[in-house]
Specification:
mainly alpha; 46% helix; elongated; 2 domains; 9% strand
Length: 114
């Protein structure tokens, strides 16, 4: 049977494909690596060792219950200034007087301080 030429754009070749043993080994390595990653990443990312400072910085996208904790930390520490960071609001900014997540967080913190 003749193999078509495909006008020089394609050619027939042979290639190696993984066997079931190779897929099994890949799965075992992936599972062990995933377990190792998930068991070590939390202590690395969740470190809470604040350094002495007069400024407390908070993310503006935090939900209200986390902003309550930010206020408690501000009151507990010897901070003089609280900064909220945030990107522009993606929805509803024309309906509200707040243009960024930082403005919303600041307004929430002001209300919590009353």
């Amino acid at each position: 049977m003749a193999v078509p030429n495909y006008q020089g754009f394609l050619k027939r070749t042979t290639c190696l494909v993984p066997t079931w043993r190779a897929w099994f080994l890949f799965a075992i390595i992936s599972i062990i690596g995933g377990i190792g990653l998930f068991s070590t990443v939390h202590p690395f990312l969740a470190v809470h060792q604040p350094i002495p400072s007069e400024i407390l910085v908070s993310e503006g996208w935090l939900p209200d219950y986390d902003l309550v904790e930010v206020k408690r930390e501000f009151d507990r520490g010897k901070y003089k200034l609280l900064l909220a960071t945030g990107l522009p609001l993606e929805r509803g900014s024309y309906l509200l007087s707040y243009r960024t997540n930082a403005h919303v967080a600041a307004a929430t913190l002001v209300e919590l301080n009353k």
